[in-house]
Design a protein that fits this description.
The chain has about 280 residues and is of the alpha/beta class. It is built from nine helices and ten strands.
Amino acid sequence: MPGPARPQWGGQIHAHTQHRRPYPAGFGQHTGVRPAGQLRGSPRGAGLGAQELALYALLTCRENLEAFGQYQGLRGKALRSAIQWCLEWAALTGRADTTVKSLSGGMRRRLNMAAGLIHRPRLVLLDEPTAGVDPQARNRIFQMVEALRNEGTTVIYTTHYMEEAERLCDRIAIVDHGRVIALGSKEELVARSFGGRSDVRMRFASTVRNGAEWAASRGGTVEEGVAHFSVEQPTDIAGLLDAAARDGLEVIDVTLHRPNLESVFLQLTGRDLRQ
């Protein structure tokens, strides 16, 4: 499952299909995406979970799914089966006859995803599906995406949050100002930027006055009162602690941090992902 992670995305995806019923307010806004039609050679086509909610507020969950299913050409038993799958997948079975306006934000987000996937597409585009939801709803959406992946669905997942890409994506593209600046698995991206090195963070007692000079003499830096050292092996920490003790520096805390995708982004762009 590839996942472009980017601070800004100015591109648009256009997939046209012939629907004669009007779409609800917000459908296709923000990203410029329109309802996904049939991909050439793929009868199940593509599906879209847009960042902007595209639901009928006065209709129930079941009625919304029925409408979107009909947009995709589903009828009769196939439509009823698809609606039931969507309700179960989105954990909304108990809310099937509740109007959208009465749902919580997380429930609306899940229903929005289900409406775009009711035809069970092989390719799914999810544009920041966790935007504006609480941690519990966010974790439920993760489970929904993981269920799609486990079924063999190809998912393109865009997000501002690197921890989401780390959890969900097999292949990650980091996009900066519309340009792919890195592509690969998490392990490949980290290895490419940092090799096998890790960051040791050391905090000295308040009585230590020469901590910055001492750290610099051993190839380290000090940021906000914390000394940082780049090491090849975790066992290198012992040498730093022994040296600090010999030089009379009291260390009150030391931690080892493995580089992650956030570290990769900072290395590549020199700024925080959320700026």
